[in-house]
Amino acid sequence: MKEELSSVFRALDHPIRRGILDLLKISPKTTTELNDFFPDVTRYSIMKHLNILEDGNLVIVRREGKYRRNFLNAVPLQEVHNRWVGKFVQTAASSLINLQTTVEQGRTNTMETKNNQFHIEQEIFMNAPREKVYKALTEDVQDWWEFRLAPKDQSSQLIFNPVLGGQFIEKWGENQGAVWGNVYYVNAPEEIRLQGHLGMQGAVNSAYTYRLIEKDGGTLLQLSHTASGIIKEDWKQEHTNGWEYLLGTLLKNYLENK
């Protein structure tokens, strides 16, 4: 944990790197596009800054042909805030946020959302080899993942590209769809990590991890899911139940009865 925090603080300790994060907060950008915002800085220097941001897990890179597209990963920033800032200002900040929300939206809405996070940990034993479980979680997700973001009157296809910078996406219609998550860590078939909205709406971000451990002739699947931002009060329970159903029922039946 200390090494991870040190990498984050090092990544933030330069105005150009902080400026890059501000730009990526607006939208993903290629290295060339970022370089255009800093005319007095060489492309080589921008690439070095991006490497440091990537080491701090603040930037996720997806390669598209000869281009490198950079995405902001806000989860480490939220973790730093929770550890070093949030606990010192939580009481005062919460009061101000509640006051502002009450004035703008009415007291009823202040009870529905909170600017915080939730964390879910689950373990499910699968009577199947680890390689088979990993393939089902990624390449075969269309066969068992039941939840959809597409309108009810349209069928959709789920595609999971389990490579660094790959995406877990849902497509429907001619040119419509949604991103469930972006892959920012891969150690197949032991572990894969994703960051994204995971179907949630509004100012919220998720990071979720699948870890696969060989055990008793089968595989122990460990799920870790952290969400931060404007969180509705019932979301933790809804997602806890959702993961139990997805992994403990749908995926388990798919693997063990296939």
UniProtKB/TrEMBL annotation:
Keyword presence, Oxidoreductase: no
Coiled-coil annotated residue ranges, if any: none
Molecular function in Gene Ontology: DNA binding; DNA-binding transcription factor activity
Keyword Membrane annotated: no
Domain called HTH arsR-type: residue spans: 7-82
InterPro entries, A to Z: ArsR-like_HTH, ASHA1/2-like_C, HTH_ArsR_DNA-bd_dom, START-like_dom_sf, WH-like_DNA-bd_sf, WH_DNA-bd_sf
UniProtKB keywords: DNA-binding
UniProt similarity note: Belongs to the AHA1 family.
Descriptive protein name: Transcriptional regulator, ArsR family
Organism: Fictibacillus solisalsi
